[in-house]
C-alpha cells in the first residue's frame, strides 16, 4: 500500500471525503470509539465542500484511487458559510492579528489507514503546499477529543485559547509556519 498526498481535483474525491466524514461523525460512533479513535463534529454537504475546494483544493491522502484521509482547506472567505464555525473565525482574527492564516476545516483518516503516519503526512503536505501563501494554520479541536488534540500538538500546533460555544469546549490551536521557516 503506497500512500500518496495530493490536492483534491475531482467530484469523486469530494464524494469519498464525504463518505469518510459520514462514517466518523461523533453522532454515529460509540463512546468507546470516540475515546479511542477520535471523531469529527461538523458534517459538510457537497456544495460547500466543492466551493471550498474550488477556492483552494483540499489536501488528500490516496491509496491508488481511494481517498484514505483528508484535511480540508478553509479560506477566511468561508467564515460565514457554516455558522457553527463563525465564533472560531472571530477568535482567530483576535488571536492572530496581522497574520495571514488559513483554517484547517477538518481532518479525518479512514479507519483502515490509521496509525500508518497518514495524519502526519497530510499535515506535512499541507505545509508544503500552503506555507508560501499563509503564515500559519489555525483550527479548533473539541477539548474532549483527546486523541485528535494530542495528534495536533505532536505536529506542532500550540493551544492559544479554550473557547466554549454551543455547550462544547474547544481548544483553538495554531501551527505557526514561520517558526519552521527561520
Task: Write structural notes for this entry.
Helix content is 37%, strand content 29%. With 182 residues, the protein is α+β, with helices and mostly antiparallel strands. The chain has one domain (3-181): Aminopeptidase (3-Layer(aba) Sandwich). It is globular and about 40 Å long.
Give the overall shape. globular
Helix-strand category: alpha+beta
Number of domains: 1
**Do you know the CATH architecture?**
3-Layer(aba) Sandwich
Q: Classify the helix fraction into a percent range.
A: 25-40%
Largest sheet, in brief, is: 7 strands, mixed
N-to-C SSE string, H for helix and E for strand: EHHHEEHEHEHEEH
In CATH, the topology is named: Aminopeptidase
Q: Note the gap between the termini.
A: 35 Å
| CATH classification class | Alpha Beta
Number of discrete helical segments: 7
Amino acid at each position: 500500500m503506497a500512500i500518496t498526498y495530493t490536492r483534491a481535483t475531482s467530484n469523486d474525491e469530494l464524494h469519498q471525503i464525504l463518505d469518510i466524514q459520514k462514517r466518523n461523525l461523533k453522532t454515529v460512533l460509540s463512546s468507546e470509539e470516540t475515546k479511542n479513535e477520535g471523531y469529527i463534529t461538523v458534517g459538510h454537504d457537497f456544495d460547500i465542500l466543492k466551493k471550498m475546494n474550488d477556492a483552494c483544493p483540499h489536501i488528500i491522502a490516496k491509496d491508488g484511487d481511494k481517498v484514505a484521509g483528508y484535511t480540508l482547506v478553509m479560506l477566511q472567505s468561508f467564515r460565514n458559510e457554516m455558522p457553527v464555525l463563525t465564533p472560531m473565525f472571530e477568535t482567530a482574527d483576535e488571536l492572530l492579528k496581522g497574520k495571514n492564516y488559513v483554517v484547517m476545516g477538518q481532518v479525518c483518516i479512514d479507519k483502515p489507514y490509521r496509525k500508518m503516519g497518514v495524519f502526519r503526512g497530510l499535515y506535512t503536505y499541507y505545509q508544503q503546499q500552503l506555507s508560501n501563501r499563509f503564515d500559519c494554520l489555525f483550527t479548533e479541536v473539541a477539548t474532549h477529543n483527546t486523541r485528535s488534540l494530542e495528534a495536533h500538538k505532536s505536529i506542532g500546533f500550540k493551544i492559544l485559547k479554550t473557547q466554549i460555544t454551543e455547550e462544547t469546549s474547544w481548544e483553538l490551536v495554531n501551527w505557526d509556519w514561520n517558526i519552521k521557516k527561520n
